[in-house]
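Q: What would this chain look like folded?
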Amino acid sequence: MTPEQFRGLLKQWDRVGRSDFLQYLKNIIPNQDETLLGTVGSSEDVHMCLYRLIQAGADGVLKKESVAKTLSEAVTLHPDLPAAVVDIFGMLDVEITATDDPKSKERFYWIIKSVEGAVSNQLLRERMEVESFPHIGVVKNPKAFNSKFIKLKTKLYYKQRKFNLFREESEGYAKLLVELNQDQSSSSPEHMLEVIKAIIGCFNLDPNRVLDVLLSSLEARPDRHNFLVPLLRLYMPSAETVSEVVGARYGFCQPQPGQDETEAETPRSLHVMTALLLRHGVIRLEHIWPWLLPADSAIEAQHRRLMAAAAEYQRRTFVVSTKDKEEAPRDETPTLSPISQTQKLGLCEAVLSIGDWPTAQAILARFPDFCLMVHPELAAAACRLLSVRLDPIYRRFSGMAAALRPAPVSLPPLVEARPDSELTSVRSEVAPLLSVIGPYLSSDVTLVYRVLRVARTAHQLRLKEADPDAPETREAFLFYDVLTMLEEAVLPCLVLLEANCCLAEEIWTVLAYYPYQHRYRLYGTWKNESHNQHPQLIRKRADLIKMSKSLMKRISKENVKPLGRLMGKLTHNAPGYMFEYMLGQIQIYDNLIGPMVDSLKYITNLSYDVLGYCIIEALANPEKDRTKHDGTSLSLWLTSLANFCGFMFKKYNLDLTGLMQYVANQLKSMKSLDLLILREVVQKMAGVEAVEDMTEEQLSAMAGGELLRAEAGFFNQVRNTKKSSQRLKDSLIDNGLMVPMVLLMAQQRHCVVFKETEGSHLKLVGKLYDQCQDTMVQFGMFLASALSIDDYRQRLPAFDSLLSEFHISPDVAFFLARPMFTHAIQQRYDELRKAEKNHKSLSVEQKREKYLQASEQVLAPVVTAVVPVFPAKTWDDISAEFFTSFWSLTLSDLRVPSESYEKEVRRLKQQVTQLADNRDLTESKRKKEQERCQVLIDKLHEEEKRQKEHVDRVLARLKKEKDSWFEPRQAKSAKTETMTQFVQMCLFPRCVFTSMDALYCAEFVRTLHSLKTPNFSTLICYDRLFCNITYTFTSCTENEASRYGRFLCALLETVMHWHGSKEVFERECAFFPGFVTKFRVSNKQNERSDHVDYENYRHVCFKWFYKITKAIVTCLDSREYVQIRNALKILIKILPCYPVLSHVANIVEKKVESVIQAEKNKRQDLAIMATSYAGLLRARKHTYIPEKDFHTVDKSKKAAPPAAAAAPATKEATKSTKGGEAAPAVANGSVKHEPMDQDRPSPRQETSYRSNDRDESTERRVKRESRGRDRPREDGDRSRSQTPRSDSTPVSGRERKHDTEERRERKAAKRSPPDDEMESKKISHRVERESDEIRVVEDEYFEKPRRPPASSSRSASEASDVDRDAKRRRVETKRSAEKAPEKDEEKKKKRKKADKGLEEGEIRNKREEKKDRKRATASDRDVSPVDLKRKLKEEEKAAKRRSEGEVEYREVKEKRRTRREEEVEYYDEPLPRYAADDYDWERERPVKDKHRGRLDTKRR
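A: My prediction, written as structure tokens:
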């Protein structure tokens, strides 16, 4: 009850306060059978309530009658309340007496008198002050009582009892000794006590001296303690008296004044006697302890000195000496005092030796932990006691055979036998002692083995239970108690022992029963905390680390074996200290990885497990930055540690659970840096390498079967990783990490970009994304290869669950589920085929039909699951079946790598031949190897045959499904949107997924073309993939850029394969739906004009090369790291197919050189990459061809009929594609083409081409002169003109733009075809417009080159002609600018104002100069005429230079303006054509974005 509540009761005491007070007391007072003082909390509240009540009555706040009545009722509530009330009376009596208030005293005493009926007078006399007796009425005659009280005190405190010492006789003591030392087997302590009393009375002996004689007898004969101790208890029941006598005996052994402390020794017999008295309860520890020396503080101070000395020793050990010869640190260990000179330690040792553990615990509790155990005698005594207590348990639960069970341990004297032999008694008998002994258990190695064997037996018994991991089972079989014993005693004691590998293995047999979480917690405590309280462990740790440093300095590849043995010895007793220093060195020097891995073959299983913990501890070190100081890449220490993990876990049988769980936990925390560890472990242990590092031959082999992939697809042999791969698989399966790991990586890809790397450098973001992507792919490949397909399908979630529940993107979901689809289709196909009666004689068509049915049945649920993932509008362009087919197939489903099979067979045959000639092998071994090679050859042939059949079935299935893939639509830009959807949803996501997928995408596009897929335009698809890809370059990471480069290279191989030969083009492209220029509703393209011919296709190829070059140059000039890096990556990958043109190669080479010069002192990685590409580019310089060999640059007037026939299609296609280009998209693929060198002209032909070019240059100059007179024409004239023109005369884009209407009509009249042909064309044009055809081929596909090629070496006359042409072009530009639209007029006015302002400024400057000259002349009148004349000449020269500079500035400005206008015109014209040496790429690029925007506006 709080004071506020009590005051509230006082206000309404008479009405309800008194009853509420009594009710409150009833509620808080316990039952009658419980003591009031034994309850926690309630007794204090009761006392406080009564105290406030009595005080209120004494102070007059309440009526004293009411208080007395309330107290009388309250004391009846509990038997202990009267005593409590009297105690309160006594306390208030003192307080009120101090206040000296007579009224308060009067009221207080009245209350006491009023409760006499409830409180007895005897209780009041016992507890109240004597001075208060007269006032409270407990004494009838106060004077007589005071007189009697004084006499009693005088008798007690001032009178002395006398004893006559001369009356005792010494013969009595002799008689006493005889009686005590004779055989007492027939007598009892009670009889002996009567004898002693008789001797004392007969010989008048001093009882205290008799007590001393009894103690001396016990000290001399401790083996008779069972008789003497009861006798002592009967003789002297007072423990204080016996303690004083024993203390006096200790006082005689203490050093006297002037005596050396080392000379004063206490006999051990006295300690044993005292210990026996303590064990039997004759004396108490708190009574004897003050008589002993030294003080507790002295013992604690000595322990602190030991710790300080050990810390100093460790510090000196770690100090690096700068002297020539390193001196060993001086050992300044304080010496320990002998137990014989330390009475308290001696008593503790005696207590332990007689087995009195409770008393020993009480003594040890007076000091800090392990303070006394540093003394070897105490540790040995504790170990002996532990051995006695453990012996009955060990004989029953040792786990050894009956013949090997040890004999019972002989009990030390004075130690009682322990009857307990249950396993649970370890918790009460053994574990407390082990906790006290700690690392000093090393004094008895045999005892350590016994403890470990009992613990191992307990675990074996636990595993035999029905539920071994239930809490009750673990509690019954000491699951957690063993952990405590290992942590506090067993593991620390291993450090103090010399190299004992057997004990380490015995410890491992117990630790192996625990999961990694418990083991690693033990290792962390053992390595980082256990030595902090033990000076010996601190010194030992310093010595071990020093030895580790010495070994690490000497290790190399040559001395791995001898130093490895020494390192093994160091790790037998303390592996954590050694591994911590070793991992630190590996993080700094990565060249130590190999020697260190080889040298660790001599360590124990316990050391291997500790190494796994140390690796995780090093990885999780928060003090280390995981990225370099610039924040753009991972730190070298993390990379080195990852490599070390890969080698260690592959070579040795380390537990992978902790490391895998650590990586999974990091992924849960949205941290992907540690995926580097997983990638290295999977690569080293499973042999699954990152696909990015594979060569072209390996990628080709990866498209084959399992045998070809194993033999030629990987760098390492798969058979060398069979065991380690199995260990990795088992570890992931046992801990349930296989599927969660891959799902976490799939989800982490987006977290890397949007959450983990917020604020990080873009280069680091790309690296982390690539690392996550590559590791996920690598891990998925490992799962597909390590697990059986049934196990894989059972463990992986369903496909629809991956998309809906786990929110995995479709590309990853298909990547994970693709092996299941393939196996399910094959399994269903076998079932359908075998269901037929004559399944062995089925035809090929029947087998294909069965395969088609199996595919439809398996993929139907997949199609259903895919549809809700994307918006419904998506499926208007492509079907869900096509999407599923694209994502469910692989490269091995579309083609057979026959070359890889043949190459591998040739290698094996060559190996067989070499084996036949090898005489170093024995005949049997040679024959065995030859048979193995021959078996592989047969298997490869069989596998190739099976894959060919499989590819045929897949292609047949695709051929039947192709008609429903792309539905025809009526929209004008339907085909463009369809191709855009195809690129965005299929090609780009998959081509940047893996390198194999990049090749697959290119092969799939070629397959769509070769299958003649309806409504699929190969031209538009390639155009989307080659044009406007600058942003695609920029959006890729480093590895994605490499994959994208592989994809572009494969596409270019296909493009150049068709470009290389007209026969190939006619065979593979002509009249194919993919090369149709007009898509009609009827899907009938029978007219020749509806398809692209060979020459126009070559023009298109040139355009694509131009677009790629434009994107690359834009990226290289951007000065952005990502754009430059990605451009160089892509250039390296497409080097076999780009650049083919010599002038394009020169452009790229110049840009790369500029990158090298700009980045060589800034971003070294870019400079190195650019230098590498420049060297590769120069090495291929002999393979480049001029543009005239790439496509027909200019046609003569007598052109071939096919070329003339293509012109109408060109114009119509140009008119039908004014809608502009779609957004850029990217994809990957791989197709091989025939080499281009076979079509290169000979040097003689090249000479003839140059001469023809010089002859044609005159014609072009004449055309330019006439072009200036007839150029002005608006853009709308060309669009409104419907007159067809023949292609027999070359007409450039500038002529199409600037010809007048009269010139167009005149040219059309000259070259108009016959009337019937014109009429047919008009009818055709009208039919096409009415049928709402969709024109898809752009005008740029069929543009003619603007300028003829120039010779590599021009003559002087030709150079002057070019200069005159350039001047004439400027004049023509000015004329055309005068007749330009209003916008050009406004620009021209602004330029005129600027020029006018410049001229006015020049005039103003001249006027000011004249004024200054006049002033200077006036001020220099005193100057001599000669000097004045010289000064004026110098000023005139300076003014002339300024005037010339201004004129030059105006000329430069005019040139720049003219150049801008020419560049704007250039982008409205077809692609320019210059000779390789004179091609200036910078001149052709738009200067500002507004020019590019103007160009796009005109095109639209």
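The chain has 69 helices and two strands.
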